[in-house]
Amino acid sequence: MNTERLTIRKTTEEDVGLIFDFIKGLATYEKRPQDVTGSIETLGYWLFEKKAATAVIAEYGDDAVGYAIYYPVFGSFSAIANAHLEDLFIKPEYRRKGLGKEFFSELSKTLKSEGYSKIEWSCLDWNTPSIEFYNRIGAKQESGRVYFEYELNER
Q1: Measured at the alpha carbon of residue 7, what is the angle toward residues 4 and 8, in degrees to the nearest 5?
Q2: In the structure, what pLDDT confidence band is assigned to residue 154 with cuts at 50, 70 and 90?
Q3: Which one, out of 50, 102, 127, 155, has a CA that is 20 to 30 A from the CA of 89?
């Protein structure tokens, strides 16, 4: 497959339904469709009104084939912002053709041009295909941290 036909673009409010469909695709891939509790309206609010994160679409020719969502995280020790990659997804029928690698490369260039120096993300421990992909592109697993979450609605 000719990866030169892959482009990425930032999303607009008109893309919110497409982004939501991609999110549902990712949730299905991760065997967690029941965890999609958001709505198109809340997604649009947080992405386009609050600007809490940035979403991009990967297009191959005229087809939307994937998406990514990222947001800044500030490192107090380094006094710089890195990008946290919340989602990175390519439709199953477009995988293993070099598009994921090209998508990540183009996204990296975009993030570098925006001033970020590093990308961080997490991956489900059972997701061997994604872990192998991340290893192939030269990502390093971070160790020495335990991640927590705290539900604000219960307080």
Answers
A1: 150
A2: low
A3: 50
